[in-house]
Amino acid sequence: MQREIRPLGRPRQDHQDKPTKAVILDVATQLFLDKGYQVVSMDDVAKKCGVTKATVYYYYKTKSDLFTDAMVQMMLRIKKRIFDILSTEKPLKDRLFEFAKAHLQATFDMDINGFMKEAKASLSNEQLQQMKQAEDKMYEVLEQALTASMEKGEIPRGYPKLGAHAFVALLTVGNFKDAEHKPIFLSLDEMTEQIVDFYWNGIGN
């Protein structure tokens, strides 16, 4: 039987034997990703967890605190997943393909820019900074992989930070839908292949 692949960054759904705070965080992450920041309430999280609202507030004083921690922890999981993908001995292009496919699978039904823009208006500068630092660490993993490939001569020397940000930015094209809500490509594999080829032709020449 083929093992089911969990989307990039989403927490496991098995909450058995988990501390209450971890369960709250996992459930909140899922709710925020599925419904957006504004729609989800602390009461929604409590009901979904099977705990009282007071329990949720015991761990998180505000919804913005809960959202910030949920997003930071999600990005830490993404960073680990990216590291696992990019630290193999496969050729860089194959690793980029695996990373791109995992990213596109996780964000296919999400408007990432809209999702974050909706939440940012309710967050403090400190909370925004926490998320920015976690986001930067995700880029660093890709940047390090590009640097290593440059040093080995696998790709020409250039600016790995630019290369990392350009690749992730290019992946957002995979979320594009036209006026009839149709994607550019019909299949995930074709979308991933075309995006990686487009990027590879740029850094390889």
List the main descriptive attributes of the protein structure presented here.
205 residues; mainly alpha; Tetracycline Repressor, domain 2; disordered N terminus
* CATH homologous superfamily annotation: Tetracycline Repressor, domain 2
SSE order, one letter for each helix or strand? HHHHHHHHH
What share of residues are in beta strands?
Answer: under 5%
CATH fold-level label: Tetracycline Repressor, domain 2
Any idea what the shape is?
globular
Number of domains: 1
Please tally the helical runs, counting DSSP H or I stretches of 4 or more residues.
Answer: 9
Q: Sheet with the most strands?
A: none
Give the CA-CA distance, first to last residue: 42 Å
- CATH-defined architecture: Orthogonal Bundle
Helix content: 55-70%
Secondary structure: number of strands? 0
- The CATH class label is Mainly Alpha
Mean pLDDT: 86
Q: C-alpha Rg, in Å?
A: 19 Å
Structural class: mainly alpha
List segments where confidence is low: pLDDT < 50 over at least 5 consecutive residues.
1-6
